[in-house]
Amino acid sequence: MDISSFLIDNNLPFPLFFLSTFLFLLFTFKQTKSPSSKSLKNLPPGPPKLPIIGNLHQVGNKPHISSANIAREYGPLISLHLGKQLVVIASTPEAAMGVLKTQDRFLSSRFVPTAFQHKNLLPNSLIWSECNQTWRNLRTLTRTHMFSNKALEAQSALREEKIGHMMDFLHSKQGQVINIEDVVFTTLFNTLSSIIFAKDLIVLNDNYGRDDELKATLYQIIEFGGRVIDFGSFFPILERFDLHGIRKGSMKQFLKAFGYWEYIIEERRSQVSSSTWSSEEAQSFVDHLLENGFSNNQIHELVTELFVAGSNTTTRTVVWVMSELVRHKEVMSKVDDEMKKEIKSDKINPSHLSKLYYLQACIKEAMRLHPAVPLLLPHKAAETCEVMNYTIPKNTKVFVNMWAMGRDPKVWDDPLSFNPERFMGSKMDFKGQDFELLPFGSGRRICPGLPFGVKSVEFILASLIHEFKWVLPDGEEHSKLDMNSKFGIAMKREKPLKLIFEKK
Ligand code: HEM
């Protein structure tokens, strides 16, 4: 890609580009410390770089695809110079193991995207903290009160209730065209808000209202977080100028979200601090945080992260599986057969899910082809270390390209075909031990919400398949469904999946 098409593709005004370049030339060489030439000697291979911008022009707005193409030419571990920032990307199971297992200790720090660089918020962050004591405490708290077997068991009735509302809503909308992402998002969001705050926050309806503002706020936060083009992160000297308005824009959305949480936290606080309160009465995750002495600011940040990380990834996974099932009628009819054999009641209940092996295989297969977080979240080298005999200097930004790995013919037979059979009778799972399939990551930074995410994806899909026939509107041909993706922290379909749900 040449520079002009790179700028046009990314909607970058030429003056902004040249202004940043000029500022960069003026200050960078004097003020920015480069990694020592010794540590730059044995870097993983990568394409030749241009002066100043390095390989920026080769990244484009779909970095999972462009870096997969570069890896095909340069190997499993590549270096790219995005302006001043050295980026290393692992694209094979062996390289992923090097990053997430062998050198997990050194490579599990976080590179914080501009959208989340708010000095008042970062000290309370679970996702963007280094592996420090705050991060350990927050992981322990979420594991104990949200994701342990005991907590998941306790959430079971809630999950059933929220999915029940979704099914009632879809039954009431039979024959109408539905944007399924919206409905699934609302369902997951309300499940999470019932766990976190002990209340629903969004209503399933078609009318634009206050609820839609909250949805839009959370969408915006994740959208700002996934911006690829951000000169501040390529040229640290430009960081403070926030040239693209990312920090300012995301802060506005954070503050809006905090406004929603504030009154609920105060409501819960008055319960928890009443003289008659006892721990057995805790109804929500926030009750536990308050009992542990969390301030409103600390709670604001943590719960926003949980909503943003939990609802978008899980929703988009459901939608990608649905898209593949819509496209492959023969696979859908096998899922149907399995469900008819295993489920004799009108409604799905959680005990059915463990028997649906073919549906589970379909979920793995869709996550292989469409990992919701295609590059995982950005890791950072806390110390200089070696992976596959190459040097990864301190402060390198490190990604693992799950999208590339899922489509690599050296890893998978016939990788581009949707073939759930490949997982039938196989022990391969996505829990972080099989380095070919890591949609939740692996090692210290593995997704803590994995059990919640998997249970929700299975339950929602099983319910939708059990009760409805899914029909594409306007006689659109199933096999031609557009499967293009839009890159972001959570990868979504370029075009929304719209379906008509007909009662079976
Ligand atoms: C299908 C659903 C999900 C997928 C595919 C997914 C995927 C991921 C991935 C790839 C990471 C980054 C791992 C890394 O950087 O190495 C991550 C991190 C994280 N996820 Fe999930 N996730 C899902 C659901 C959830 C849910 C439901 C929650 C919470 C409600 C959640 C909360 C988090 C948090 C807090 C982190 C940051 C952990 C850390 O940095 O220590 N995720 N997730």
UniProtKB/TrEMBL annotation:
It comes from the Eukaryota. Keywords: Heme, Iron, Membrane, Metal-binding, Monooxygenase, Oxidoreductase, Transmembrane, Transmembrane helix. InterPro entries: Cyt_P450, Cyt_P450_CS, Cyt_P450_E_grp-I, Cyt_P450_sf. Heme binds at C447. Its cofactor is heme. One of its GO terms (molecular function) is iron ion binding. Belongs to the cytochrome P450 family. This is Cytochrome P450. The lineage of its organism: Eukaryota, Viridiplantae, Streptophyta, Embryophyta, Tracheophyta.
